[in-house]
Write a structure and sequence with these properties.
Blueprint (H helix, E strand, L loop, with lengths): L1 E4 L6 H7 L16 E4 L2 H27 L13 H9 L8 E7 L2 E8 L4 H17 L9 H12 L17 H7 L1
Antiparallel strand pairs: 1-2, 3-4
């Protein structure tokens, strides 16, 4: 992996706001265009392999919790357990989860698994793509997040009630509102 320093786009704030990314700067810049990372195909393969293995381990852990009725250790209310069991047994789909890794000296270290903050979908699927188009159209980002999300909604359709699909958010929280929009 290489960290490559670069110069931020002139008026980058306006560029990201134009595509709806209004929470790009907090007390410190949240979105940073001073560098990008370049990976080899071998490094991408390592990340993908680790991701698949960790996901399998997560599923094994969930099964262990269910088999041994360890819900209370995760502060799961009794009233929710039947819904969890039903979802697990019927193999209901999930939309999103993210492994955060530290990548150093060709070694990966898991920092966290996050399945409740979809911000990175928007950042990596949309904002990063527009940055790359402005920065260097000859390069490609190694992800298909946007395309996979669009395709996945066709699968989810079978699990949803017919008619209008409603989303909710805390409108006063710009990040939450942006993710929902």
């Amino acid at each position: 992996m290489q960290r490559i320093k670069t110069t931020a786009r002139h008026h980058w704030q306006e560029a990201v706001e134009k595509i709806g990314f209004g929470f790009h700067s907090l007390d410190v810049p949240y979105w940073d265009e001073s560098a990008y990372y370049s990976f080899t195909m071998e490094e991408i393969g390592l990340i993908e392999k680790a991701t698949a293995e960790l996901w399998d381990k997560c599923l094994i852990a969930v099964q262990h919790v269910m088999d041994h009725h360890l819900y209370n250790q995760f502060f799961i209310p009794e009233s929710i357990i039947p819904l969890i069991v039903k979802s697990w047994e019927e193999d209901h789909p999930s939309i999103y989860g993210r492994f955060d890794f530290c990548f150093k000296n060709n070694t990966l270290k898991l920092l966290e698994f996050n399945a409740d903050t979809p911000t990175s979908l928007y950042e990596a699927g949309i904002v990063q793509w527009f940055w790359l188009q402005d920065f260097d159209k000859s390069k490609d980002q190694f992800n298909s997040i946007h395309e996979k999300l669009v395709a996945y909604w066709k699968i989810l359709k079978d699990y949803l009630h017919p008619g209008t699909l409603h989303f909710s958010c805390l409108k006063e929280t710009l990040e939450d509102l942006t993710n929902t929009e």
